[in-house]
Design brief:
about 300 residues; 2 domains; eight-stranded mixed beta sheet; about 35% helix
């Protein structure tokens, strides 16, 4: 088990509601209290990076939060001044400290009291080369398949994960030059696996992650999610050396009447003409899993 180590819990903000962030901090403080009492960590920082048009918090509000929760965590806040995206925002936050472990969570995540303890358990196995451990999201669980005995899975959603800093640094963090918002966690997970580490899903580590559904319980996506998911899908196929899938995606997007599909295809060709595409990896297709328009096997569909 991890013992007497430092931890940074970090989130990237973008026009989030302050009260929802504070509600998250309350759950973090409780989970940190459990972790410290179990001598898992002895120093925990919660670091927020804010890419909003205007700061979500001011200096006085951060001081007040530290006054309320400082017994458990030190809260730090960095206003980016522009929307850096998820990948670049997390890379910057990680570079601001040198903690032994990095925990990435969405700013509205609510942790169970033992979430951090459960996320740390796979690192107790001395001969298991674990690179990243993902929590189970509730009330809507992510449908990715995983090995029920080992927890191994294709990739980890960074809604709530625990990562040793040496692993984060070995893969140079997220590929922020390629992925602005979506698929940065898929690519990050596969880069970790490419280095010989395991990606673990830990069902006993629970994190509440609120989702917006329609009246008939269908998944609702924003315009940004629609576009950046399409853009990232093309770039994933290219970076992970799947020319067959890339050709199929571009043909489908070119023939589509959906505007953001056409925009994503145009963006890819612009990057290609400017020589700005990422270096390709995994030419033997040993890591990247492209299965039925998903990045791995699914247990169920949403």
């Amino acid at each position: 088990m991890i013992q007497n180590r430092s931890l940074q819990i970090q989130s990237v903000l973008y026009h989030n509601e302050p009260q929802r962030i504070i509600r998250s901090i309350k759950s973090i403080a409780r989970a940190v209290d459990f972790a410290i009492n179990q001598r898992l960590f002895d120093e925990v920082t919660v670091y927020y990076g804010d890419g909003s048009q205007n700061p979500v918090f001011n200096e006085q509000e951060i001081e007040e939060l530290n006054a309320e929760f400082g017994e458990y965590v030190k809260i730090r806040y960095h206003y980016f001044g522009s929307n850096l995206g998820s990948a670049r925002g997390h890379n910057l936050l990680a570079s601001l400290t040198d903690t032994d472990y990095i925990m990435i969570i969405n700013p509205d995540i609510l942790l169970a009291p033992d979430t951090i303890l459960q996320l740390a358990k796979p690192y107790a196995e001395p001969n298991h080369k674990v690179g990243i451990v993902e929590a189970r999201q509730m009330p809507i669980e992510h449908p990715k398949a995983y090995n029920p005995k080992t927890g191994e899975t294709s990739w980890a959603s960074t809604a709530c994960v625990l990562i040793p800093r040496p692993v984060f640094e070995k893969v140079n963090g997220f590929d922020a030059d390629t992925f602005f918002l979506y698929c940065d966690d898929v690519d990050f997970s596969w880069m970790i696996r490419l280095q010989g580490y395991k990606v673990i899903f830990q069902p006993s580590a629970v994190a509440f992650h609120d989702k917006t559904l329609s009246n008939n319980a269908a998944w609702q996506t924003s315009d940004a999610e629609d576009y950046y998911s399409a853009e990232a899908g093309i770039l994933m196929a290219y970076k992970w050396s799947r020319s067959d899938i890339l050709s199929n995606i571009l043909a489908y997007f070119d023939n589509s009447n959906i505007s953001y599909y056409k925009k994503a295809a145009e963006h890819f060709r612009k990057l290609k003409s400017e020589g700005k595409l990422p270096q390709q990896v995994d030419p033997d297709h040993k890591i990247g899993e492209f299965i039925n328009n998903n990045y791995g096997k699914m247990r169920f569909s949403l």
